[in-house]
Structure formats: structure tokens, C-alpha cells
Amino acid sequence: xxxxxxxRLAALLTCSLGLLLAVxxxxxxxxxxGQLKAAYLVNFLKYIEWPGxxxxxxxxxxxxxxxxxxxxxxxxxxxxxxxxRIRKVNSPEQLADCQELFIPETEEARAGAVLRWVDxxxxxxxxxxxxxxxxxxxxxxxxxxxxxxxxxxxxxLNRANLKASSQMLRLARxxxxxxx
Length: 180
Fold this sequence. Notes:
Blueprint: H1 3-20, H2 33-44, E1 48-49, E2 56-62, H3 68-71, E3 78-79, E4 82-89, E5 100-103, H4 111-118, E6 124-127, E7 139-144, E8 147-153, H5 154-159, E9 163-164, H6 166-171, E10 174-176
Parallel strand pairs: 2-4, 2-5, 5-6, 6-7, 8-10
Antiparallel strand pairs: 1-9, 3-4, 7-8
């Protein structure tokens, strides 16, 4: 294997470990699905480029979310040099400071309306509804073969003027649309 291939493999493994193993658990404890989803939400922030600069980064939770308790331990941490904040939102007016918006599967009936609220805004939309990426959201967390994976809708990222790192795109189960 060439030196360049080894470097790329090492970078991919580092990214994989960062995305998949950054769950705060004690030794020997198996992470719950909620902990895994929370870790994915936080780690997505490291692999997406937003326009402009900020000192904080906000994950907003729409509607009846179940991830708030799992994300609470991340509140105030530094992610990509920015302080992480977690907020609950229920209306378009509350989305102004959101960089990432989680729409739980329990709110799937309202997901289309929420996506229209954030259309063309620099907000990364994520859901655990399996068809979310196919339905216009940016990232869908999906359970397949007993594992939590994610699908990316590159067209949704482009509309939001967001850019996913090449490592993140390689780790996705599938990428829908064209990457710019």
C-alpha cells in the first residue's frame, strides 16, 4: 500500500472513530440509541462548513424531542473552536441562531413544513426519520443491520450553502444528489 493510501486510510479511520465513538460512556457501558444519536449530532458539527464565523454553535431541537437529556452533557463544550448550545424550538421565528436543527421522527408529519421554514438558510437539518434525506432533509440517521448510520442529501446541503467534508461523505451509507 502506498504512503498516500495509508495516510488517507488513517484519516478515514480517525474520522470514523470521531464520528462513531465520541459517545460519553463509562468503561464497559453500551451506549443507548439516544446517546449515539446525540453524539452524531455533535460530531456532524465538526465535519460541516458554515458560511461566516461565529463564537457559538447551536443545535436546535424541534417539537417533542427525546434527545435533549442526552445532549445536555455536551452543553458548553467546545466544538470546532465554538461553544455548543442546545435549544428547543417550535416556530420559524426561533430558528434564527440555529446551525443544526434536529426534527425527530415523532414530528415526521410536520417535517415538510419545517423544511420550508429553513429553505435556503445555512441550517443543517437532521432527523431520525428513515426517509428524511430522500424527502429533502440534509441528513437522515438510519438504523440498518443493527447499526446507526446516516444518509446525506447533497442537494439539501447545497441549498443551505453548507459543505460536508470528504471524510463525512465517505462515511455516509449513501449520498443523494450531487456534491459540489
